Amino acid sequence: MSPRLLDVRGLSAGYRGIPAVRDVDLVVDAGEVVALLGPNGAGKTTTLLAVSGLVDRLAGEIAVCGRSTAGMRPAAIARAGVAHVPEDRGLFARLTVRENLRVAARRSRPPIELVLDYFPELAPLIDRRVGLLSCGEQQLLAIARALVADPKLLLVDEMSLGLSPVLVERLLPLVRRVADETGAGVLVVEQHVDLALSIADRAYVLRHGEVALHERGEVLRANPQLLADSYLGGPRAD
Ligand SMILES: Nc1ncnc2c1ncn2[C@@H]1O[C@H](COP(=O)(O)OP(=O)(O)OP(=O)(O)O)[C@@H](O)[C@H]1O
Ligand SMILES: [Mg+2]
Fold this sequence. Notes:
Radius of gyration: 17 Å
Structural class: alpha/beta
Strand order of the largest sheet: 6-7-8-3-9-10
Helix content: 25-40%
Bound molecules: adenosine-5'-triphosphate, magnesium ion
Number of helices: 9
Oligomer: single chain
CATH topology of the domain at 1-81 and 189-238: Rossmann fold
Shape: globular
């Protein structure tokens, strides 16, 4: 059995003591791509932020690589192997591509070759300032930057925001490749539900801060109505 990289049990998390997600159970195993889906405001971003320690956990347990993250600061959670690509991409616009990669790298020298193997488009841009890159190039870099930290668990929030569908179709398989080749677990929040399901082993649908559906990707690919019902508040399937 592949090791459990993320184990979320009964999680409630939110802002100023008010939960935005409630009683969430969610797991990610090594080499898995798990999609976290749901309508706007459902709590997807809050869930990722809670895993990274950036939003208060009000109840429940979060374990990364078998170790509880209770009481750990975000930097310690990152060191434990969690890399987070946030909605706004979190890049340093005034630094170059190379400098952004260096800042994130765990070792003194980032394995830039490895990154360029995944993202050959970045090679000619390596000494360009990030503020001068296109949205698509910045998103490539945001994922590349997460990879040089050599994560065990990769969290990706709305990778496709502001990108053309063509680029999203190119990026999502890269996420699959990361899971397949590095054994990392990937939890991906994505608006393009069909594209997310095309690479996901399993998916969770959040609705009003609660898990409305948890199902294997192949089941959802074969039964799109199941997903539509969960968005609209259909019968709970677990
Ligand atoms: N900083 C904040 N302070 C207070 N409430 C917040 C904050 N951020 C989010 N919320 C609330 O928490 C709930 C969940 O928001 P969240 O951003 O996690 O949803 P989401 O599923 O990521 O939505 P979207 O698809 O729009 O990105 C929403 O009701 C939102 O208004
Ligand atoms: Mg969000």
